[in-house]
Amino acid sequence: MRAVVTRVKNARVEIDGAISGAIETGFLVLLGVGPGDTPAQADKLADKICGLRIFEDENEKMNLNLAAVGGALLVVSQFTLYADTSSRRPGFSHAAKPETAIPLYERFMDQCRERGFRVEHGEFGADMQVFSQNDGPVTILFEV
C-alpha cells in the first residue's frame, strides 16, 4: 500500500459538485492499493498514519499526533500512486483491481475509525475534485 499524507487546515472532496467528505484540521490521505497488498498492511498503515507526529507543539516542534490536535482524516482512493512512469503516458497495471482494492481501502478507514478518529472519504473509482489548504506544507510518503 502507498499513501501520500498531507497535513491540512481543511480539505474536502466533491463529486458532481456535491461535497462527499470534508474535514478541518487533520490529514488528507491519498491511498493507493497494490495487487499483492494484504489486510495486515492496511492495519499497519493505519497505525503509522494515525500515530504520525507532525503537528507543532508549544515549542514549534513537530511533536503532536492527530489525537492531540483533535484532527480527522479525509481518505481518497488514488490508484495513480501505482503508475508505471517508464514512458510519458503512465500505465496503471500495477494498481490493484477494484475487487482487491475496495476491501483494503475500506479496512484502512475502519482501522482509523477504531483508533477513535473521524474519517471522511471520497467514492472509490469516482471522478473527484479534491481541495485542500495544506498546512506547512507538510507531506509524507508511506509505503508498507
Summarize the structure in words:
The chain has helices at residues 39-50, 98-114, and strands at residues 2-15, 18-23, 26-32, 55-56, 62-64, 72-77, 119-121, 129-143. It is an alpha/beta fold. It has one domain (2-143): D-tyrosyl-tRNA(Tyr) deacylase (D-tyrosyl-trna(Tyr) Deacylase, Chain: A). The strands form 2 sheets. Strands 1, 2, 3, 6, 7 and 8 form a 6-stranded mixed β-sheet that branches. The longest helix has 17 residues, at 98-114. It is globular. 34% of the residues are buried. The model has no long low-confidence stretch (mean pLDDT 97).
Set out the fold topology.
Blueprint: E1 2-15, E2 18-23, E3 26-32, H1 39-50, E4 55-56, E5 62-64, E6 72-77, H2 98-114, E7 119-121, E8 129-143
Parallel strand pairs: 3-6, 6-7
Antiparallel strand pairs: 1-2, 1-3, 1-8, 4-5
Helix pairs in contact: 1-2
